Amino acid sequence: MSETLDSDRGDADVRTVIPLLMPAPHGPLAGVEIRRPGPSGPHWNGSRAALVSGAGGAKEDFLPLMHRLAEEGHRLFAVDLCGQNETPGPDDPAAYGIDALATDLAVAMTAACARKPVHLVGHGAGALVAATAVLQARSRERFAPSTYRSLTLVAPCWDGLLTADDAVSADWERRMARQHRGGLLAGERRAVIRQRLARSHPMNLEHLASAIAGPELAAGLRAAGIRMLVVGGAEDPLVPVDRTGELARHLGARHGVVPGAGHLPHQDNPGALAGVLTAFWAEDGA
């Protein structure tokens, strides 16, 4: 990985970081696995989780959270979707629809997790991708692990991310700044975002930022019977906690709030988010 984030937790002797290239229908997805050292073959029966980000996001955003969860014994996988960050993408709009991205995610995680059950965690528009993968698993089992253990939606952009101003602006750096606390990008973070945006396919950015969950998605999730959690940042200006609470009630899901966090709880307060996820996963013996 060319982009790194300081997790401030965990030395090399407590976790292993493994770059991945996972097969998918629209081309291999770049990813990363973080886990404790030790036995980890296809028959390993511990807890696995897959994390997917939304518009302008990347697998590296999750590293602070992944390091903390790995210390609890979980195996974590994060991916760059088609056309996102270090995963190249074609000039075919069909590759960037939510259904196509969800199928890519499911195929990649089937390979990475050896068809073992996995907890899905999606942030922003990535929450729509993860949720769609759950519905696909009901009708296209060959494209997904045999079961998904749970679904977590973090600051989900259920109603899209673009505003009226965004519709007439191609300033993605400004759009990304809105996701950070205070609406500002520090110098080092600005350089990271510029590099990431330069690598990402414009169709990936636009499709994810404009994606909206249809009523059939919520209805399908309720019918799927999967355990769900909706998490909001206490100071999120884009997806306020009253909205995440409303969505949780609509889905019949648990609701969690991460204090001291804006739209990026996995960066603003990864320790608190790790605690929320660990408690939720532990409810089914994960």
TrEMBL record:
Pfam families: Abhydrolase_6. SUPFAM superfamilies: alpha/beta-Hydrolases. InterPro entries: AB_hydrolase_1 (IPR000073), AB_hydrolase_fold (IPR029058), Carboxylesterase_BioH (IPR050228). Transmembrane segments: none annotated. Residues 51-274 form the AB hydrolase-1 domain. GO terms for molecular function: catalytic activity. This is Pimeloyl-ACP methyl ester carboxylesterase. It comes from Streptomyces griseochromogenes.
